[in-house]
Amino acid sequence: MAKKNDTHSRAIEVADQLLSEGIRPTQQNVRERLGSGSLTTINRALNDWWHTLAARIQRRNEHPELPEPVIQLADKTWNRALAYAEHRFNQQRIELEQKQAELRQASDARRYDGESALLAAQQQNARLLERCEQLADEKHQLEKRILELEEAQIRLTMERDQAMHEVRQLEKLGDRQGLNDEAMIELRVRSRIQEEEIERLRRQNDRLSGENASLKAGL
User: What local confidence, expressed as pLDDT, does residue 30 receive?
Assistant: First the structure.
């Protein structure tokens, strides 16, 4: 790095010498004067030299009374300041690019997290909608079952009442006709069968009533 800087500064000095001799500085004649050095470094030095030439000439015109060593010292100081400023600019540019990359990475991470959270929420919402549809279907089935149980309960109640009515009619018929023992036995058997049927219907009715109440509570 030191050799590169030395070639750069010597190339600028040689360019000044050539210009003072009335010769246009080029990569070739500067390198010939130097005797060595990278053409890339010499070319960069000549670019810097051309960029600062107008300003140096203007300073000389504005301060012609200044000795040449003072002007050269001022030029070197100015060139060092420019080099330092360029170096600081490059450092800050690199830092800004690194910061920008970090911000972009953080932004991408937040966007990924947001997209993941959104996807999870959408999936959960889809599951909830599916569950709501299932519950709605179950509710519909329960309501249908309740209606069926209520209809069955009404039908069984009517059958029970009809059976009880027939038993009472048979008992009255037996009392009025003075039936013999055989007829009374048959009547009692029929009455017993009707009573058992009534009891069966009553138990079934109670079971349906309890199932109906449970289903309504589940709604």
Answer: 92
